[in-house]
Amino acid sequence: GGATFEEDMRQVFEEADPDSSGLVSPQTLLGIMRETTGGTIPEKEMWQIINSVEQKDGMIEWMKWEALWEACDEDS
């Protein structure tokens, strides 16, 4: 499977968001990040990234998140 990182992320998010609301909880997001990064990013840093995303009723719109994640990915 030559799935790109982005496709992986999208798939993970779709599993985390079965009703396709476009929203995931910060806690779910942390789990996703931990899974996809394999522990390469410290949890404190993950929370900083999560907290920098605009939230809606305590939930994160994952389309916004995706753009942010790409930005993070480019830095490394």
Structure commentary:
This protein is mainly α and 76 residues long. 62% of the residues lie in helices and 9% in strands. It has four helices and three strands; from the N terminus they run αβααββα. The chain has helices at residues 5-16, 26-37, 43-51, 62-75; strands at residues 23-24, 55-56, 59-61. The protein has a three-stranded antiparallel sheet with strand order 1-3-2. Strand 2 (55-56) and strand 3 (59-61) form a beta hairpin. Helix 2 (26-37) crosses helix 3 (43-51).
Order of helices and strands: HEHHEEH
Largest sheet: 3 strands, antiparallel
Look at the structure and give the mean pLDDT.
82
- Binned strand content: 5-15%
Q: Helical proportion?
A: 55-70%
Radius of gyration: 12 Å
* Number of DSSP-assigned strands: 3
Give the strand line-up of the largest sheet.
1-3-2
